[in-house]
Write a structure and sequence with these properties.
Among the domains are: 55-119, wza like domain (wza like fold, 2-Layer Sandwich); 125-207, Outer membrane lipoprotein wza domain like (Outer membrane lipoprotein wza fold like), CATH 3.10.560. The chain is an alpha+beta fold. It is built from five helices and ten strands. The longest helix is centred in the first third of the chain and has 12 residues, at 14-25. It has helices at 2-9, 14-25, 93-104, 148-154, 184-190, and strands at residues 55-60, 68-71, 77-80, 83-87, 113-119, 127-132, 139-141, 167-173, 176-182, 204-207. The strands form three sheets. The protein has a five-stranded mixed sheet with strand order 7-6-10-8-9, with helices on one face. It has a three-stranded antiparallel sheet with strand order 2-1-5, covered by helices on one side. It starts with a helix and ends in a 5-residue tail after the last strand.
């Protein structure tokens, strides 16, 4: 402050003195840390991969005759108007849409295609298959934290001929198949939650028939 007063007496303009006083009273601004303005890392991709048995809704912009709903065949292919065979299994809906646009560009100018999965089955490696005395034996799409009870509900429960307590889950670990005994009757009818094991993609639930 003493130096500023001396500068004022020496003839510095009042505006300059005011700015000096203001800067002396202002706290220093914190400098951003290195990399603070860098964009956050992108989350890992978790795009759904189409499997045999899925049902796809194909929408071609302004082309109602080409917009159809088709199943993915057991050979992994789909057929739509103007496209006889296109591999869909193992690809994301966006990849299939781009490949359809490339195929349709032979007939249309700048086609725009959207692909929506209406009914999910997924890849075999991402399914849980249920065989035997289930009300609806089928492959169930796996989802995170899926339990045995979730699977049984998805197949409509057991038939009246099922030997639920003699069921087992076949699971492949490191190339070796192991059997996990599960008591479905105790789980479904007696509420024994300890039987409600966590399932893994690729599991096979086998429900045998009751012996009369």
């Amino acid at each position: 402050m003493t130096r500023i007063m001396k500068n004022w007496r020496s003839g510095l303009p009042l505006a300059t003195l005011f700015c000096l006083l203001l800067c002396l009273g202002r706290p220093a601004l914190a400098q951003p840390a290195a990399g603070a303005n860098a964009p956050p890392p992108e989350p890992p991709s978790s795009s759904y991969q189409i499997g045999a048995g899925d049902v796809l809704q194909i929408f071609v912009w302004r082309q109602d005759d080409l917009s159809v709903t088709v199943p993915v065949r057991p050979d992994g292919m789909i057929s739509t108007p103007l496209i006889n065979d296109l591999v869909a299994v193992g690809k994301t809906p966006t990849q299939v849409a781009h490949e359809m646009e490339a195929a349709l560009s032979k007939f249309l100018r700048a086609p725009q295609v959207n692909v929506i999965v209406k009914e999910f089955v997924g890849l075999t490696s991402a399914q849980i298959r249920v065989t035997g005395q289930a009300a609806q034996p089928k492959a169930v799409p796996y989802r995170d934290r899926m339990t045995l009870l979730d699977v049984v509900i998805a197949v409509g429960g057991l038939t009246k001929f099922a030997a639920g307590n003699r069921s087992h889950v076949a699971r492949t670990v490191d190339g070796k198949t192991e059997e996990i005994h599960v008591r479905l009757d105790d789980l479904m009818n007696r509420g024994k939650i300890k039987e409600n094991i966590v399932m893994q993609p690729g599991d096979v639930l086998i429900i045998p028939e009751r012996v009369f």
